[in-house]
Write a structure and sequence with these properties.
This is 4'-phosphopantetheinyl transferase EntD (Siderophore biosynthesis). The chain is about 25% helix and about 30% strand.
């Protein structure tokens, strides 16, 4: 489902697919008690998606050789609180959970978002899209890309997930203009000031019925050489 081309070379990731008709709490039951407490009063589905995403996070941290089993708790606006020396992102949607982590010496902040590869509900596009983004969506549709409006939403969510840990400030849909490109890349131009970076680069793909978007901001002193790896086929 996920592809190495979506992430910087130093990143590690993990994902699971699940049966939505029967939420499984097995991964939730193996979480640290402090992690379980975050959603202790939630419904079964919420506990399941939280447990699966955190399980992915711990697997990715183990591959990275960081974290030492420390709980990944929740901060402002749901931001994951990663162990020292780590940045990362989580996502969960219908039947899919995933996490990505990277060392902060290489990556300053990351975003990961996944959505069903289906058009947005009627009326939603007008509330998330800037006028300059609409011609790009038409170009993607003309090229046969399914649900380009959902792709835009996903890219904006991945942008926000990279933005918030750097600023602890809200970023509205209107506060970033996304240049979605046919080669599987995008650039999010940040329109608010002050901003720690003028833009955030990202990658996207559509696979197995999901739209997936990722973003990464290089650590200070690391060169921003553009998209993370080779162009997606």
């Amino acid at each position: 489902m996920l592809d190495s081309a979506l992430f910087p070379a130093e990143a590690r990731w993990c994902y699971v697919t699940v049966d939505m008709s029967n939420p499984d709490l097995e991964n939730f039951r193996h979480l640290h008690p402090l992690e379980q407490a975050v959603v202790s009063h939630s419904v079964r589905l919420r506990k399941a998606e939280f447990g699966d995403a955190r399980w992915c996070a711990h697997r990715a941290l183990k591959e990275l050789g960081l974290g030492n089993g420390l709980p990944v708790l929740r901060g402002d606006r749901g931001m994951p609180l990663w162990p020292d020396g780590v940045c990362g992102s989580l996502t969960h949607t219908n039947g899919f959970r995933a996490a990505v982590v990277a060392p902060t010496w290489s990556v300053r902040s990351m975003g990961l978002d996944a959505e069903p590869a289906e058009p947005l509900p009627e009326g939603i596009l007008g509330s998330i899209a800037r006028p300059g983004e609409l011609p790009r969506l038409e170009k993607l549709a003309d090229a046969g890309i399914p649900a380009p409006d959902r792709l835009l939403f996903c890219a904006k969510e991945a942008t926000y997930k990279a933005w918030f840990p750097m600023t602890h400030r809200w970023l509205g849909f209107e506060d970033a203009e996304i240049d979605l490109r046919l080669d599987g890349t995008f650039v999010s131009y940040l329109l608010v000031r002050p901003t720690p970076v003028p833009f955030i680069r990202g990658r996207w793909m559509i696979r197995n019925g999901y739209v997936i978007a990722t973003t990464a901001v290089p650590a200070e002193g690391q060169e921003d050489n553009g998209p993370f790896h080779q162009v997606l086929s």
